[in-house]
Amino acid sequence: MLNLINKKSHIIGSLYRIKKSSSYLNDTFLKNINTKSFDDIKDLMMDVKNINQTYKLIFSAYRYLMYTSPIKHLKRPYNSHARIFLSHIIIFNSPDSLLGPEKTRTLKTRKLHRECIMLINYFKILSKNPSNKKIMLLFLENFNSYMTTFLDWQKADKEKLIGEMSHNYWELEITKRNVELSNQNKEMVGVSPPNDNRQEVIDSLKKMQKDILINIQRLDTESMDTFNQYIPIIYTEDFIENVRDTLEIVFWDNIRNDMALIPPNNCRFKAVLQELLDNLRTICIHDETYQNNLTEFYDIELLLQMIQSRVYTFDNLKSHFNALIDILIKFDAPIHDSCNLDIKNSIIKRISELEQNPLKYYSNIIECWIEILKHLLPAFIKINKIKNELLNNNN
User: Using CA atoms, how far apart are residues 181 and 52, in angstroms rounded to an integer?
Assistant: First the structure.
């Protein structure tokens, strides 16, 4: 009897809070929404009272349905979800500011905008019919769908931002390295000017890099993992041609240093291996036999584990390399056959040289993989680029 009374009191209390909160939020946000500015809605979204009222609305709707309907497919709303809910109002009000012009939007941003419009319409309907259970259910279902899409879009947007900051970090690294090399050359010939400010420039560049890393870390706890997986050599066309060699030297040096740590930091190395695998999958997409064998042949986790456990032999490495170079020769244009055979012979020679020194087994295995990756990965990327251009032209 007591449980029944409690249940009824929860249902009545939930309906009361739905009516009160929806009315308040309707007056605060939805009335004259088209006349409100971006900054006006942003200020309303940051107001603690509005956030609390939003949470009361979505939680009360959830609790009411929990007591009156089977709603296992709906997620329980928490206080942090209130901000996500309010985000749909500012996106609806200023889509171009947050999602960009319509013609430039991606599939994710288009989907987010569509769901935003759906949600705000159900929000308006609920405000006029706060006790209608069917509308309440549709309202929460749309909010759940919107929240999933929003978090997916937010993650992609965050990764894009990290990518841009990583790009800037590496441009600064190139500039810093070139200033350092310039300083060394001047010192060698003894012609450094008395008021040389190169060290000040280097210190300034280091500070800018540090600021970038701080900003990346502020995004979330996993943002540095994303930064460490950034592969600048893939984007060399975005950089000035005359710094390409410097960029590649710095990048591969960092991988050598990472893998020499105890324990090794394999984030960058793993990211390049994954990039190679992704390109292999795309290049061989119509070769079903190879696609079926690819995961087993090129198991990145197993490969790294074998290398770090020192059970990965030069025979294993040669087997991987021969398979990779054969794929390159098979799928690259015949005009490049001679050049690819030269690459093959050059890498085989380098592997043989490094194999002769068993005292440096671990570092030499890494060095061999760097040799393979820095020659083959750009070639595979170029094949995919040409393939995509041909497909786009045909379409």
Answer: 57
- Supply angle C-alpha 349, 352, 353, rounded to 5: 90
Spell 264-273 as b/e; 16+ CB within 10 A means b. ebbbbbbbbb
What one-character-per-residue DSSP string does 285-331 give? TT-HHHHHHHHHHT-HHHHHHHHHTT---HHHHHHHHHHHHHHHHHH
Other beta carbons within 10 Å of 294: 17
Amino acid occupying residue 183: N
* pTM for this entry: 0.51
Q: Contact at 8 Å (CB) between 15 and 109?
A: no
Low-confidence stretches of the chain (pLDDT < 50) are 1-2, 186-195, 235-242
CA distance 306 to 366: 12
CA distance 137 to 66: 10
Nearest-angstrom CA–CA distance, 103 and 108: 13
Angstrom distance (rounded) from CA 305 to CA 265? 12
Give the residue from 177, 172, 381, 167 showing the smallest Cα distance to 272: 381
Q: Give the tens place of pLDDT for each residue, 288-301.
A: 666 666 766 778 88
Q: What is the pLDDT of residues 257-282, one digit of tens each?
A: 889 888 888 888 988 888 888 888 88
Q: Which residue has the tokens 């759940």?
A: 144
Closest by CA position to 64, among listed 126, 136, 135: 136
How many Å apart are CA 348 and CA 329, to the nearest integer? 15
Cα gap 385→390, rounded to integer Å: 9
Helix locations, 69-105, DSSP H: 81-93, 95-99
